[in-house]
Amino acid sequence: MKKVLLSAIVLLVSVITASAQVSETKETPQLEFALQLKVTLGETYQVGDTQHGQRIVIPITGGTFEGPAIKGTIINGGADYQLANKALNRTELEAIYSIKTDDGVYIHVRNRGIIWNGKDANGNPSFYFKAAPQFEAPADSKYAWLNNALFVCAPDFSQQFQGIVLNVWKVK
Question: Model confidence over 38-86: pLDDT tens digits?
């Protein structure tokens, strides 16, 4: 009986110690710059108020992208489909388009995000614009790494560019 009790205590101490080690080793995810997209846009149009909110469509007409391991052009024909809720000063966006690398590989992109104009805890104006692009690259290409990671992006308003500039980071 003493052996069983001693074994149970040793097991319990081992589990508690292992749990403590797991808690201590939690790391904050890091970001690694992946690419910058310079997206040219067509004329915005509004579908109007729908059952889901005000639908806005912004055509994607082209552009370029470049990062440490990728470079190319943005294909004409995609769009940014936005759903605005004026009462909440919030817009959900979903941009769907394709890109083509300089070596001829096509990659599908679906970028979902939120734009919010509100007030912080102190009542000061606050602006939030972040999105999470997902990439679909050919699995047998050198760009398959895009398929196997999460990404986040934010606009870069400091650029003198007619369109939108998005900086994209890989979550490590």
Answer: 999 999 999 999 999 999 999 999 999 999 999 999 999 999 999 999 9
- What confidence tier does 26 reach under pLDDT thresholds 50, 70, 90? confident
How far lies 39's CA from each of 5, 86, 167, in Å? 67, 25, 11
Exposure pattern of 97-108 as b/e (b: 16+ CB <10 Å)? bbbebeeeeebe
Q: Look at the chain and count its residues.
A: 172
Number of Cα atoms under 13 Å in the Cβ half of residue 124: 2
Instruction: For residues 114 and 121, give the distance between their C-alpha atoms in angstroms, rounded to a whole number.
Output: 19
Q: What is the pTM of this model?
A: 0.82
| Whether 172 contacts 32, CB under 8 Å | yes
